[in-house]
Write a structure and sequence with these properties.
three-stranded mixed sheet, globular, disordered N terminus
Length: 143
């Protein structure tokens, strides 16, 4: 099996429904930190109140290829420690334990296979395009 860095489409894969269920569990955690922006319009509104002093610098980071550059191991740590562990409302959305959620999540984001010209490849970096859990994983990591 050949491996290389690329963007794959997860829609229609065997893990899609599990990914959708995990996305439903994780979605309420997105946007709960002070570092979440919904759009460039939201950014512009927030920037109006930012004052940069003479001895300070304003630095902006541009994210390129967010899904394929999301570090999976670190993102999973952020989700476990920063969101799931200690989440008192988690039981209202699922009967799964944190361990089960993390096991399913790790399996879904680390077993992304796709075919191109009749050759099966494995995505080695980042999260899959088209997976319902991918934007949540990337957003939770970025927050």
């Amino acid at each position: 099996m050949t491996t290389f860095r690329c963007t794959s489409n997860y829609t229609g894969s065997i893990g899609y429904r599990t990914s959708r269920a995990l996305a439903d569990i994780l979605a309420p955690f997105v946007g709960k930190r002070g570092h979440h922006l919904n759009s460039s319009k939201h950014l512009a509104k927030e920037m109006i109140s930012v004052m940069v002093e003479e001895d300070e610098m304003f630095i902006s980071h541009y994210v390129v290829s967010l899904f394929t550059n999301t570090p999976i191991d670190l993102a999973l740590q952020v989700i476990r420690k920063g969101r799931l562990e200690g989440a008192t409302e988690l039981h209202t959305r699922t009967r799964l334990t944190v361990e089960y959620i993390m096991g399913l999540l790790k399996f879904i984001v680390t077993t992304t296979y796709f075919s191109f010209r009749s050759i099966i490849y494995q995505q080695m970096f980042g999260v899959a395009m088209g997976s319902p859990v991918s934007p949540l994983l990337a957003n939770l990591f970025m927050e």
